[in-house]
């Protein structure tokens, strides 16, 4: 049988996803055909799979590190939270509806055979499968109906490594507590542990590491340093919370905006923000001064206000209204600021949101922000597909640019204004097998200052960043200077995976990892 190895954590955001990403990259560099696997993911960051449908963004990054296209087998169950106690349930890339926490807890054991089928297909195809757990295996209230942690380790007959985050403190207690709370059969699968996000002199840790090895029988595979700006897409909004929490500690001008040159861009921090990685290139390209807006006052002085995607358009819209963002946005509109809505943010910018079938909420009709003459109607079917767009004459993008992106949304929007982009139908077929016609996409106001689009991932292409910069008055010399320093997005990600692998080779006992995969340890 092919080798399997499972990475579990002592908590969420301990570093499981990054560890799997680094391991599959190392193994790929060593000549292994390796695939990632996570039975159940909870994340609002998703991406289209090659079979259609969507999977978690972390498994997409892991697939990229392994040199593979994203497949629904890498993440057969995806939960996208819609409320504090409910989520949309995605099974093999397709939504089967919304469930509250209690309903899903009782339902999920029925998904275990499907999880096993995906895992078996991967094991039949690859030399090794690196499996990621979720949360912690020591969540004893969830153990009975588990389909993602030790239940999968037993299915795969996989040894398990534990990852713990030392930056939050209590690393030895979290590792030992996890070991202690497992039953004998689960504990027997634990082979080693990794300490993640360490800052300082590792020799000071040594006595604790050795004692933990003696107490548990687990082997310490190494201590990973705290990595900044890794360049690998984050799994969920826990990372975004860390980013927005740290922006107050970054150098800022007297007005509170980041230091430097360029237009000021405020990205509104929605309660259930999704695919927030769309906006990392805005921060990285050097053309803009970007900050996440946690409160209406953060919009003061913004040249561009961005409403990102969300899994709960109506709920987040009502939250913005209650928190005073609507008034602050109206003031910025009167002051001449630009606005951009992406996916759910695009829907919010419109005049009305209709939900006659209660697909997303109990509200059959909600008033939008009224910044675009757009009406959105929700329906049960979900759009999930990669697309290629070109400009529609609005100045955002050249008409022959051909920029790639993807759409993941429920609902259709009808606009009374000109489109922002044109989606190129060349090379794609409709359900009848005929070539798809080019279609308009998004909307832009008559004065060009308010725009909306369903397409994610556009800012990965510098031509879109350049078009936005022109809209905001950046001179061509700066735009061209930035173009020369801008790394191709795909090449930049490949370099990031290689850097991560180099860190793993320096700090982890990879010979032990290979021995575990060969069944020799």
Describe the 3D structure.
The protein is built from 17 helices and 26 strands. A hairpin with a 5-residue loop joins strand 4 (46-48) and strand 5 (54-56). With 521 residues, the protein is of the alpha/beta class. The relative contact order is 0.11. The two termini are 16 Å apart. It folds into 2 domains: 3-41 and 61-71 and 109-231 and 493-514, Rossmann fold, CATH 3.40.50.300; 263-473, Rossmann fold, CATH 3.40.50.880.
Short description:
Helices cover 32% and strands 27% of the residues. It is an alpha/beta fold and 521 residues long.
Features:
alpha/beta, Rossmann fold, 2 domains, six-stranded parallel β-sheet
Average pLDDT rating: 90
Number of domains: 2
Instruction: List low-pLDDT spans.
Output: none
Distance between the termini: 16 Å
Largest beta sheet: what is the strand line-up? 2-9-1-10-11-12
CATH fold naming of the largest domain: Rossmann fold
Shape: globular
Main sheet attributes: strand count, strand direction, barrel closure: 6 strands, parallel
Given the structure, what is the number of helices? 17
Report Rg.
24 Å
State the helical fraction: 25-40%
- Output the CATH homologous superfamily of the largest domain: Class I glutamine amidotransferase (GATase) domain
CATH class of the largest domain: Alpha Beta
Sheet-strand content, in percent, reads 25-35%
CATH A-level architecture of the largest domain? 3-Layer(aba) Sandwich
Write the layout of secondary structure elements.
Blueprint: E1 3-9, H1 16-29, E2 34-37, E3 40-42, E4 46-48, E5 54-56, H2 57-66, E6 77-83, E7 86-91, E8 94-100, H3 101-107, H4 112-125, E9 128-132, H5 150-156, E10 160-165, H6 171-181, H7 184-187, E11 190-198, H8 206-216, E12 219-225, H9 237-246, E13 264-268, E14 273-274, H10 280-284, E15 289-293, E16 304-307, E17 309-310, H11 313-323, H12 325-334, E18 338-342, H13 344-349, E19 352-354, E20 365-367, E21 374-391, E22 403-415, E23 421-423, E24 439-441, E25 443-444, E26 450-453, H14 462-471, H15 476-485, H16 489-507, H17 510-517
Parallel strand pairs: 1-9, 1-10, 2-9, 3-6, 10-11, 11-12, 13-15, 13-16, 16-18, 18-26, 19-21
Antiparallel strand pairs: 4-5, 6-7, 7-8, 14-17, 19-20, 21-22, 21-23, 23-24, 25-26
Helix pairs in contact: 1-2, 1-16, 6-8, 14-15
């Amino acid at each position: 049988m092919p080798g399997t190895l499972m990475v579990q954590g002592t908590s969420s955001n301990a570093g499981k996803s990054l560890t799997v990403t680094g391991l599959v990259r190392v193994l790929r560099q060593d000549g292994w055909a390796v695939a990632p696997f996570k039975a159940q993911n909870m994340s609002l960051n998703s991406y289209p799979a090659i079979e259609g449908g969507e999977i978690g963004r972390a498994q997409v990054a892991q697939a990229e590190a392994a040199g593979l296209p994203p497949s629904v087998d890498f993440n057969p169950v995806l939960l996208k939270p819609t409320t504090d106690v409910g989520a949309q349930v995605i099974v093999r890339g397709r939504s089967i509806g919304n469930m509250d926490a209690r309903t899903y807890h009782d339902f999920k054991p029925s998904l275990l055979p499907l999880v096993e089928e995906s895992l078996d297909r991967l094991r039949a195809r690859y030399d090794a499968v690196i499996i990621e757990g979720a949360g912690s295996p020591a969540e004893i209230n969830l153990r009975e109906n588990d389909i993602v942690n030790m239940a999968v380790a037993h299915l795969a007959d996989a040894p398990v490594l534990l990852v713990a985050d030392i930056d939050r403190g209590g690393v030895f207690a979290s590792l030992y507590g996890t070991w202690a709370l497992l039953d004998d059969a689960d504990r027997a699968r634990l082979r080693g542990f990794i300490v993640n996000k360490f800052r300082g002199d590792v020799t000071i840790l040594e006595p604790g590491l050795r004692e933990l090895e003696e107490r548990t029988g687990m082997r310490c595979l190494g201590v990973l340093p705290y990595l900044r700006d890794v360049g690998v897409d984050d799994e969920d909004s826990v990372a975004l919370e860390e980013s927005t929490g740290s922006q107050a500690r970054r150098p800022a001008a007297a007005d509170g905006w980041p230091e430097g040159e360029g237009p000021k861009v405020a990205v509104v921090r929605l309660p259930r923000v999704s695919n927030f990685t769309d906006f990392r290139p805005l921060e990285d390209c050097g053309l803009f001064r970007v900050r996440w807006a946690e409160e209406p006052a953060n919009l003061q002085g913004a040249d561009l206000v961005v409403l990102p995607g969300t899994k709960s358009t109506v709920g987040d819209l009502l939250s913005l209204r209650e928190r005073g963002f609507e008034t602050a946005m109206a003031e910025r509109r009167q002051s001449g600021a630009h606005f951009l809505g992406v996916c759910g943010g695009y829907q919010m910018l419109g005049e009305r949101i209709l939900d006659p079938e209660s697909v997303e909420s109990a509200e059959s009709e909600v008033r939008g922000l009224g910044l675009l003459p757009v009406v959105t109607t929700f329906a049960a079917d979900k759009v999930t597909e990669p697309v290629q767009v070109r400009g529609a004459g609005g100045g955002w993008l050249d008409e022959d640019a051909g920029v790639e992106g993807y759409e993941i949304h429920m609902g259709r929007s009808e606009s009374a204004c000109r489109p922002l982009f044109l989606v190129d139908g060349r090379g794609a077929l409709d359900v009848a097998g005929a070539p798809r016609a080019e279609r308009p996409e998004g909307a832009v106001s008559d004065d060009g200052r308010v725009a909306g689009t369903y397409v994610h991932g556009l800012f990965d292409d510098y031509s879109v960043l350049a078009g936005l910069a022109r809209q905001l008055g950046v001179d061509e010399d700066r735009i061209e200077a930035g173009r020369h320093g801008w790394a191709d997005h795909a090449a930049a990600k490949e370099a990031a995976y290689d850097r991560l692998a180099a860190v793993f080779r320096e700090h982890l006992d990879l010979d032990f990892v290979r021995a575990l995969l060969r069944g020799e340890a």
